Amino acid sequence: MILWTFRHTKPYNPNDVCYGRLDFDVSPTFSEESSLAIEAFRKTHAKPTRLYSSPLLRCTRLAEKVSEATGLAIEKEDSLLELNFGTWEGQKLTAVPRTEMASWMQDLRGFRFPEGESFYDVDKRVGKFLDTLPENGEFLWVTHAGVIAALQHFACELPDKEFVEGKFSYTMVNRFDLNRNADGHYRGTFTKIHDGIQMPPLPLG
User: Fold this and answer.
1) What's the mean per-residue pLDDT of the chain?
2) What CATH code is carried by the domain that includes residue 128?
């Protein structure tokens, strides 16, 4: 299987709060960001046959542009939603309880955010959806950092100590080359095709 992933463009987040399931619209740089990413994707001569998108606005807006470029209909898929940060949603990271922040720092991917998910939970739901896709297909996902990182970790053996979720650029495009293992799960490698606008460092102090 060939799987192409687009991360969404920069969201409009003027208060710089934690967002996963918050449905932010895109920033004024949307047009330039999306155009550059799609142009880089076109140069690969990719031929996906289905286009899946997270249902959140920051993804569907980009998926609409990708749909125009590829002629593919958008299929909204809840499995491609960003991690649910629970009680952290809408808060500045510097405002969350210090005890919770300390617990997260000790286990970045395994910590379950209060009333939300852990990154391991994202691995499971993304993996479950990925396994439903046929091995001889070529697909495109417009999604979030947490979902793309999940693919890199569970399918491509990126170690947990490399916490990449907070380092991805907006509109990053990746290609995943995946095959089923003996247990029927997809495993393989990935290649970055395009970098967009780099995120600012997470204020983890």
Assistant:
1) 95
2) 3.40.50.1240
Average pLDDT over residues 159-175: 93
- In a domain, residue 95? The reply is yes
User: Which residues constitute the domain of residue 142?
Assistant: 2-198
Dist. CA 205–CA 201, nearest whole Å: 11
- The verdict on residue 204 lying in a domain is no
CA distances from 79 to 54, 60, 74, 158, 163 (A): 7, 14, 14, 21, 21
Q: How many domains does the chain have?
A: 1
In this structure, what token pair is assigned to residue 156? 């491509």
Residue pair 2/138 in contact (Cβ under 8 Å)? The answer is yes
Predicted confidence at residue 202, as pLDDT, reads 64
> pLDDT category, 51, cuts 50, 70, 90?
very high
